[in-house]
Amino acid sequence: MTSATATVSHTAAVARLGYALADPTRSAVLLALRTGPAYPSDLADAVGVSRQVMSNQLACLRGCGLVVATPEGRRASYRLADPHLAPALDELLQVVLSVDPACCTGETCGCV
Fold it and tell me: Of the chain's two ends, which shows fewer C-beta atoms within 10 Å, N or C?
């Protein structure tokens, strides 16, 4: 496997991803969007936050370049901005399980 040299742009992009993942609500949104687009109201219900909080978190994720909105009439759905992000988040979950195997045990675990 060839290793690319990280540029200032790469470092900034990784820092934006880290910033997004540092907040549990933003992390939950990114993980929820791995399976496909969703509406903010559905994401708010799934994550357990108000619609205003979800709006703020989605604005942050858009600013980080991690999600994009697709207008659909009076609503908009959100999806991951890059198709590489879903498998990267899947891999990150594997790292989490390696670091903390107790975080997800039993048949009820749905994170992998």
Answer: N
Measured on CA atoms in the order 71, 25, 18, 88, is the torsion positive or negative?
A: negative
pTM: 0.82
Q: 81 and 89 in contact (C-beta within 8 Å)?
A: no
Residue pLDDT, tens place only, 8-44: 888 988 899 999 999 999 999 999 999 999 999 999 9
| Secondary structure (DSSP) of 39-92 | -HHHHHHHHT--HHHHHHHHHHHHHTTSEEEEEETTEEEEEESSTTHHHHHHHH
Tokens 């909105």, located at residue: 69
Instruction: Pick left, alpha or beta for residue 7 (phi over 0 → left; psi -120 to 50 → alpha; otherwise beta).
Output: beta
